[in-house]
Amino acid sequence: MDKKPNQVGAPRPQHNTGTARPPYQSQQTRPGGRDASRRGDMRGRENKDQHAINERIRAREVRLVGDNVENGVVSIQEALRIADELGLDLIEISPNAEPPVCRVLDYQKFLYQQKKRAKEQKAKQTKVVVKEIRFGPQTDDHDYNFKLKHAVSFLQEGSKVKAYVFFKGRSILFKEQGEVLLLRFANDLEEYGKVEQMPLLEGKRMIIMLTPKKK
């Protein structure tokens, strides 16, 4: 009589305990709703951004704004329902308002718009250029007019002008004369720039600062 070989590692028969394991549920997008996996990820993760989104918004009612929704005050449940039907996110953009202001928009698109706007603002910020003009306490008219002409061109191009009188040795005794010179300089440039700092003595230099007038 042949003996059947032992089946090592063969699975043991399972006994029915009366409780069925729930079937696997695929993560699919509901018709008109947000992707379930994406929404759950946004709920569960720690929101490191400055804006609360979706179920992280704690207000009982919010003011909806935007082009794709009817603007007005609604309950948080209604706002979430509207965002869900549009397949978008509810983003709290003004948490300190009464009630908080929320916008219905794709959150990743919202972050992209924020970064793009910040980049554009940074590009518009021009680097401030400061041009220096030096005088002696007894500058003659020819030298004065030559430097005045340069100051006009500096201010017209948008640069600041830092003019100063340098006192060497005993010439510090003529500091009042230096102050008069700088005030005359500022007055002659009144059409092109305004005084940002009145004449100020710093060590051996008396300085006046001029900034260009806005066109």
Could you give a quick summary of the protein structure above?
By secondary structure, the protein is α/β, with parallel strands linked by helices. It folds into two domains: 36-122, Ubiquitin-like (UB roll) (Roll), CATH 3.10.20.80; 130-212, 2-Layer Sandwich (Translation Initiation Factor IF3).
Write the layout of secondary structure elements.
Elements: H1 36-44, E1 61-65, E2 72-75, H2 76-85, E3 89-94, E4 101-105, H3 107-124, E5 130-135, H4 141-156, E6 160-166, H5 175-188, E7 193-202, E8 205-212
Parallel strand pairs: 1-4, 5-6
Antiparallel strand pairs: 1-2, 3-4, 6-8, 7-8
What can you tell me about this protein's structure?
It is a single chain. The longest helix is centred in the middle third of the chain and has 18 residues, at 107-124. The chain is α/β, with parallel strands linked by helices and 215 residues long. Helix content is 31%, strand content 24%. Strand 1 (61-65) and strand 2 form a beta hairpin. The chain has helices at 36-44, 76-85, 107-124, 141-156, 175-188; strands at residues 61-65, 72-75, 89-94, 101-105, 130-135, 160-166, 193-202, 205-212. It has 5 helices and 8 strands.
What is the mean pLDDT? Answer: 78
The CATH C-level class name of the largest domain = Alpha Beta
Total DSSP E strands: 8
Largest sheet: 4 strands, mixed
| CATH level-3 fold name of the largest domain | Ubiquitin-like (UB roll)
Shape descriptor reads rod-shaped
Helix content: 25-40%
Core attributes:
Translation Initiation Factor IF3; alpha/beta; 215 residues; Ubiquitin-like (UB roll); 31% helix; four-stranded mixed β-sheet; 2 domains
